[in-house]
Amino acid sequence: KRQRREDSALLQPDAILKWNVFDEIATRVTEGCTGNDILDELEESYVGNGDACNLLLDCFSVLGHHSTELQRTYLKECLLHHFTTEAADTTLNDTGPPEWLNELLSGAEWQDLFFKLGESHSDSHLVTYAMENLMDNKKHCDVASSSPDLAQNFFKVFVEGLKQHAALLMQLGPDELTFSANWTLFVELCAKTQYTYITAQVVLFLLAHVAEQQQRPFFKRLFEELELELIAQEEGSSERPRIDTCRTNWLYYVSSFHQASGVLETTQVDEVRRALQPMLLSKSTNVGDILKLHKLYATDEPPSASYLQHKSFLDLMVRDLVPNQGNNEHRGVPPAHRSKYVWLLAHACGTTTKFVVASEETNFEDLMEGTSAVVTATGDSTTDRLVDESSQVPAVRESLDTLLRILNATQNETGLLKEIQAHLKWAGCAMCTLQWVDHAMHNMQQHLGVPTTLHRVVPNLLRILHHIAKRHSAQHATIFNIVEKYFHPLDPTSIEPDQTVAYKKMLLQLLLQLVHQGFAVPVLSKFAIWSKELDSSLIRMFVCKLFRMTKAPYSHSYTKLAVKLLQLEKVIDAWKTPSSLADSPVFDIMRFLDVVKKYPIKDKEFQVQLARVKEQFDDDKVPHKAAAASSVGVA
Predict the structure, then answer these.
(1) For residue 369, which of 215, 633, 538, 160 has the smallest C-alpha distance?
(2) SS3 at position 508
């Protein structure tokens, strides 16, 4: 009897507060305990934790905290800490989920708990049931889609997140896209795992063909930018999906979609994939696979040219067709097979691929639910299919062949623009020319101090870049990368300080042209870094022309970067330097400030920077301030 008393559950601390206390009392009665014995055990076990908690809650209530909310928060923390899949799934039985679970799901106070459980316990049947229940409500999908961890576990959440972020990115300007906070969230969502990346890329690829005509370039750019982002993040991170594996799987899924659509025969699917995969994985072309692709695409019914229009593959082709004459390690394409490379590049750049949709509309929701809305009948000629318009390919091939002969034989860039200008209307020719300019800029770095190089060679090369920038907005990023790569001379000892200023001035003028054509945000971001060590005359020239050429309305990204630039010490010193009214940037800066002070930008850092810039204009020593203020109309 003494042993049974020591084992009694009623002697556990605060046993009277346990949820099953009545069951334990019944057990003790069956063991022969009297009512007084049971009361003695309950009295002995009472500690008072409940009273202590109530007292603590009363104290918090006095401080303004709601006791019910505190209890709920504590319970959530306990559940998150002690939750196990095995224990949770035992609550589900053949009769369905327990009533208390449905009550928790119907209340908004507990839904965030299930979202957090879904991030780490997606293998639990209870959590899966809860998420499916919550995802039936679009409002809950909107909330859940902000979590990449949740999106990788539940497809419906991923779909909503992809839709929301894509819609927000579509509202941004072309140069703002990859510099916005929404872009960071979009990349985090899509690149969370290999599977989220592949799914996102397949969807973006299809939308680039089936979306409304004016939206297709946007989705195509998202597709390319997402891959470039993943390449940049690949090094030094074991958690990111490897781009090589993703490229391979992307080719598999898209080609499978084309096969299901009746676009490609099975043999074409396999052969195209087997030829492209080794080159994308090794980041270099090989003659065997190029010959195989040429044979496939030279038939009367070739595969879709969209496979060849992959940016990474085009870059490999251009690199081999325009080798660096000063680099003996990479000799380019063997002469015997050069024509096949030119043929493929011309076919890729000269073919316009469009998706012919059998149904009247194919919206995002239908596409994400499955391919049934896109593919209506496998193999039927009336189904959705890719159609290539290749009437321009012969003209592109002829221009490309002529251009490559000129570039590979040219040692002197004088008059080169006039000679190749007619060919630069084609994107493939522009890509090859940019590769040649890149090599030329690298090879002449050791001779920058030579007057003929600085005053003839560099200006001629920059004229070519100017011309391409006007004709091909898609190449602005490549031009910007070339300027960034060679902005600082590779051999500073080969050039005098005054020559360095002249050299950088020419490059900054090219960047200003990119700003004028809409590529502003990347340029301003980089110039803010360079300004720390630039000559004040260059800063003054850049700031003066920048604010003179840009007009309202300004995008929020541009506004933030421009204000950040204006409050830098060296920039302030530059625009405060006395000069003639015609050369002073003060008027244009005040015009800019008069517009942006009305913008509802609530970012605290931006407001601090804007206040600092305005403070500088309160100085009566600012040159031409009175004249500028009267012109702008501000005090």
Answers:
(1) 160
(2) helix
